[in-house]
Design a protein that fits this description.
Largest sheet: 4 strands, antiparallel
Strand content: 5-15%
Structural class: alpha+beta
């Protein structure tokens, strides 16, 4: 009987100690759970960020893939265009070779020659030529300009030269002089007055002519040969008449001069 109370006290102390231990352990566990929860939340955020980054990389990869596809398409188009251009160049070379083999007699070449002739005539439209003027000892551009001014004075015409120079290779004869004026009208004025030269002692051995292209010179040479033949056969009713650089044979009076320049 006396031992019973001691057993009772012992059980109560043991229960208090056990309860205290349980309270501490639960608190620690709760804190641990909170810590774990926070860690899990942090990892969730990191995982979400990683997922977003991966999605961004996927978008970038798709964009790069699209760009590569576009570049590949453009490259193929360029290759096709290059091949097409190569065929065109080959075709042009073949056409050029064909034209050359035909001795430049094709229609396209004739059109080109006419175009070139027109340009050359335009470049010479303001010019005229002076032939058989002796070369002076100290001749230069200034003395040539003075000589041309004297010529205009003797012909009683009002003209102003913009360029005066000798052309052609040096030979036994004086080189011709090409004179550039301000307009074709001035040139026509000079050509109309050239008949006066034969009555002027200073200029009686000098003659004036248009600045002709090679085609015009060949044409004029052929007309002169034909005119000589006609006169030789007794038909003196022809003259060579120049209409703005286009010489032609014209039927006229037998007593008329064999070469004229008119504005027809």
């Amino acid at each position: 009987m006396p031992s019973t109370p001691m057993i009772t006290r012992s059980n109560k102390g043991s229960n208090l100690t056990s309860t205290a231990k349980k309270v501490v352990t639960l608190d620690d566990i709760w804190k641990s759970l909170v810590t774990i929860q926070e860690s899990v939340s942090s990892h969730d955020i990191k995982l979400e960020t990683i997922v977003k980054n991966i999605e961004g990389f996927e978008i970038s990869i798709k964009s790069f893939s699209t760009a590569i596809d576009n570049l590949t398409t453009e490259l193929n188009l360029v290759k096709e265009e290059k091949a097409s251009l190569a065929l065109e160049v080959k075709s042009l070379h073949e056409k050029i070779s064909k034209l050359e083999s035909e001795h430049h007699c094709g229609p396209a070449t004739n059109e080109y020659n006419i175009y070139q002739e027109s340009l050359e005539r335009m470049s010479k439209a303001n010019n005229f030529m002076i032939f058989n003027v002796p070369l002076s000892a100290n001749e230069n551009s200034e003395t040539l300009n003075v000589m041309v001014d004297h010529l205009f004075q003797d012909l009683a015409i009002q003209c102003q030269s913009t360029s005066v120079k000798r052309i052609g290779p040096v030979g036994s004869r004086p080189r011709p002089i090409v004179v550039q004026l301000n307009s074709p009208t001035d040139v026509h004025m000079v050509l109309k007055s050239k008949r006066k030269l034969r009555n002027l002692e200073r200029w009686k051995n000098v003659w004036i002519h248009e600045d002709l292209t090679l085609m015009q010179r060949k044409q004029l040479s052929g007309l002169r040969s034909e005119l000589k033949r006609l006169h030789g056969s007794g038909d003196h009713g022809w003259v060579i008449r120049n209409s703005y650089g286009s010489p032609k044979l014209v039927r006229t009076n037998p007593g008329q001069s064999t070469t004229e320049n008119t504005k027809n």
